[in-house]
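ok posting inputs for the adenosine monophosphate job
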Amino acid sequence: MANYQRILVAVDFSKEFESVLAKAIEQQQLTGARLLLVHVVEYTGAMYTGEIPLPEDLDLDQRLAKQAEEKLQAMIEQNDLQNAGYQVEIGTPKREIVRVAEEHSADLIIIGSHGRHGLQLLLGSTANGVLHQATCDVLAIRVEGD
Ligand code: AMP
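and the output
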C-alpha cells in the first residue's frame, strides 16, 4: 500500500462510524500520515422535501457547524490523535469531502461504505459519489450491516 501522508477521514457521527475511525487510526499508525477529520453539515434547506421551499436557515447551519467542531475536537482528544486536524463545512457531503481533500492535497480519503443513507446498498450515496469524483485514492471501510 502507498505511503500516505495526508489522510482525510469523512466523519458522519453515526454509530457505524466507530469502525471507520478505528481503521483510519490503524492507517495513521502504519503510515505516520496526518489525519484530517472532516464533517459536512448538510444544508437544512435540503432536509425539507415539501412543495413550498424552505429558506435556508443559515443560523441553524452555523450552530450545527459549531456543534460538529466540538464533537470533532472531542473525538481527537478521546482517541489521543495529537497530530490530527479537523474541518467542518456546510454543503453537500460528497462535494465538500472531495473539495476539502483537494484543498489539503490529501492522498487518501477514508469513508464508510454506508452510514445513514445507504443501509441496503453496497455503497451509500456519499461513498459512491466520493469514489467517482475524488482525484486521490479512496478507502471505503465496510461497516456493520454490509
Ligand atoms: P452514507 O452516504 O450516509 O451511507 O455515508 C457513508 C459514509 O460517508 C459515512 O460512513 C461517512 O464516512 C461519510 N459521510 C456521510 N455523511 C457525511 C457527512 N455529512 N460529513 C462527512 N462524512 C459523511
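notes: Residues 10-12, 17, 20, 38-40, 42, 93, 97, 111-112, 114-118, 124-127 surround adenosine monophosphate (CB under 6 Å). The longest strand covers residues 34-42.
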